[in-house]
Specification:
It is a single chain. The protein has a four-stranded mixed sheet. α2 links the parallel β1 and β2. The protein has a single domain, classed as 3-Layer(aba) Sandwich (Glutaredoxin). The model has no long low-confidence stretch (mean pLDDT 96). Helices cover 41% and strands 28% of the residues. The chain is α+β, with helices and mostly antiparallel strands.
Amino acid sequence: MNSFQKKINSDTLTLVDFFATWCGPCKTMAPMLNELKQKVGDDASILKVDVDINPAIAQQYKIQGVPTLILFKNGQPLWRQSGVVPVHQLEQIIHQYK
């Protein structure tokens, strides 16, 4: 089992950021996700997946545009949204599913 599958199948919430290096809004999300990690600590892990390097994973989750954020727990997607999502909103979503 690869590390992506291992992470999303854990019972810890995992927020996956599907991004691309050429994507402007993705660059906006990067520091926001660092801020989010500081706020939520061990309540959730954050995983970045480059869709150009991992096209099979992007296809598996039907990623149409980047950034797309998906929150997983025990392998199940609990929440999903494309585009830039404010830190406070992500924090609320993580606490909602904790």
